[in-house]
User: Which sequence fits this backbone?
């Protein structure tokens, strides 16, 4: 087992996208952090220190601290001296978190942990200022495994912590759900009969994500559940906490991204090269393919490419004239499932595209695809 | 010499045969140093041990345990005993910069609060059940 963990390399692009997301989230959190630290350190307020010996910044010091926080977050996001800026960012956030119990937050703690792991993983190896002008290399896979484990542990322990009577009764939802505003639930629904099943469902959702992200068959459904869970939290929890809950969601999504495959060009997308309409769609899919997982090949260029022996070229060419095809090793996916599969493997779509595996969305998607494919037959425009 | 996809031909042939191994880019041997192994297992151990340790904490939700929105904890009640012997209840949230549900007020330093209440002799923090979590003497400090 250890050789499969420590003996492999992986592509650096998913890490790079996570680095950008985490850097941006840290920048956003720096803005919020300025207000929190200033209020906690304001004269006349109670303090709940961890360490009496830890020096505290004065008013100007808080500004310097937050400017350093923001600057290192930007440096980390763009990949400027990534290991230095990431280490400095983690240090600034750790210092802030340890100033007082009131400056703690779960997402700040998670930001620190994920930043450290991204530094160790060499997240500046691709899509960064550091990597400008150099060939894109690979990075050891074991820190990526740690990022994945971290995602599972956060969801798993979050579910575990909610297995108590107070939460399962719906009482916590009753406290946190908004009573006013557009998203307020009617009072008639604020009952244990409604809130308790919702609470139980949320625990199952977190457990589902924690476990199923490790199973390729269920991974994309787990991503979709995660998107729904975090969107629900952002929308329905106290608006004053929205930015911080949003930051938490961004960090979790950056961890989930690590579950996508990383082998560049390993998924071959074959499309009808005689159809300009298809060409337009393929251009869009190429733009979204930030991880570079796909190789896009026109159906009339199939002869020149090596394929797995199990793939029948004639079948493939004939089918490619009818619908989009994806070859992933010996597996062939086509039509709507192929479009969905591409979207599941790009950063802009991996969280939500999995819902199209579920009926009736899957059936609807197939129908729409078939209708569009039939219509594009009428608009063949040649090469 | 490169194949169609820009990988060395041998590598590409290998990838085509290794059907369900898409998660790894390269299978060339990597010898991870000892520190990497120690870091890997140490990280996982700490990330499991800390939330487990915090789950045994008296009050929930607690920090460092991924216990967000898992329970409800009400802030303590602060009773101010004045130098003339009278007492009054003040909302604690008026005296904390960033009210949080997971703060352990038994560890609080209320020196600055005493400064804001010049005639205060003693501050008492009690949790809703009535249990005193902190007695803070303003005069003798």
Assistant:
């Amino acid at each position: 087992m250890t050789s499969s963990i420590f003996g492999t390399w992986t592509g650096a692009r998913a890490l790079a996208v996570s680095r950008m997301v985490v850097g941006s989230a840290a920048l956003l959190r720096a803005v919020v952090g300025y207000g929190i630290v200033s209020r906690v350190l304001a004269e006349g307020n109670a303090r709940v220190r961890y360490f009496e010996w830890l020096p505290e910044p004065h008013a100007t010091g808080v500004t310097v601290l937050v400017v350093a926080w923001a600057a290192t977050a930007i440096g980390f996001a763009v990949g400027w001296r990534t290991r230095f800026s990431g280490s400095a960012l983690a240090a600034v956030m750790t210092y802030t978190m340890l100033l007082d119990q009131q400056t703690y937050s779960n997402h700040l703690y998670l930001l620190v942990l994920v930043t450290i792991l991204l530094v160790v993983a060499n997240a500046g190896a691709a899509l960064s200022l550091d990597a400008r002008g150099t060939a894109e290399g690979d990075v050891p896979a074991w820190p990526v495994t740690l990022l994945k484990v971290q995602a599972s542990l956060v969801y798993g322990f979050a579910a575990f912590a909610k297995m108590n009577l107070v939460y399962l009764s719906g009482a916590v939802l009753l406290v946190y759900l908004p009573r006013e505003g557009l998203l307020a639930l009617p009072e008639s629904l604020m009952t244990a009969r409604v809130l308790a099943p919702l609470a139980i469902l949320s625990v199952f959702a977190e457990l589902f994500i924690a476990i199923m992200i490790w199973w390729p068959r269920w991974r994309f459904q787990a991503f979709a559940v995660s998107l729904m869970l975090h969107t629900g939290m952002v929308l329905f929890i106290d608006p004053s906490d929205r930015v911080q809950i949003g930051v938490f969601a961004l960090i979790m999504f950056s961890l989930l991204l690590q579950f996508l495959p990383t082998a560049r060009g390993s998924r071959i997308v074959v499309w009808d090269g005689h159809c300009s309409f298809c060409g337009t769609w393929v251009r869009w899919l190429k733009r979204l393919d930030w991880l570079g997982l796909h190789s896009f090949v026109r159906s009339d260029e199939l002869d020149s490419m090596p394929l797995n022996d199990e793939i029948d070229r004639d079948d493939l060419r004939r089918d490619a004239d009818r619908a989009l095809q994806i070859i992933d090793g010996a597996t062939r996916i086509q039509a709507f499932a192929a479009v969905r599969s591409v979207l599941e493997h790009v950063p802009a779509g991996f969280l939500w595209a999995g819902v199209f595996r579920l009926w009736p969305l899957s059936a609807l998607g197939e129908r729409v695809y078939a209708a569009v494919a039939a219509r594009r037959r009428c608009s063949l425009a040649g090469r | 010499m490169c194949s169609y996809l820009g990988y060395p031909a041998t590598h590409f042939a290998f990838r085509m045969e290794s059907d369900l191994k898409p998660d790894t880019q390269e299978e060339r041997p990597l010898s991870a140093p000892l520190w990497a192994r120690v870091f890997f297992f140490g990280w996982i151990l700490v990330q499991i041990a800390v939330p487990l340790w915090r789950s045994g904490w008296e009050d929930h939700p607690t920090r460092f345990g991924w216990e967000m929105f898992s329970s409800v904890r009400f802030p303590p009640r602060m009773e101010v005993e004045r130098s003339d012997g009278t007492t009054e209840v003040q909302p604690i949230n008026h005296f904390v910069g960033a009210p949080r549900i997971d703060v352990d007020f038994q560890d609080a330093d209320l020196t600055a609060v005493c400064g804001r209440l010049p005639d205060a002799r003693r501050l008492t923090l009690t949790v809703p059940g009535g249990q005193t979590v902190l007695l803070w003497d303003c005069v003798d400090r």
Observations:
- The radius of gyration of chain A is 24 Å.
- Chain A touches chain B through 73 residues (CB under 8 Å).
- The first strand of chain A starts at residue 9 and ends at 11.
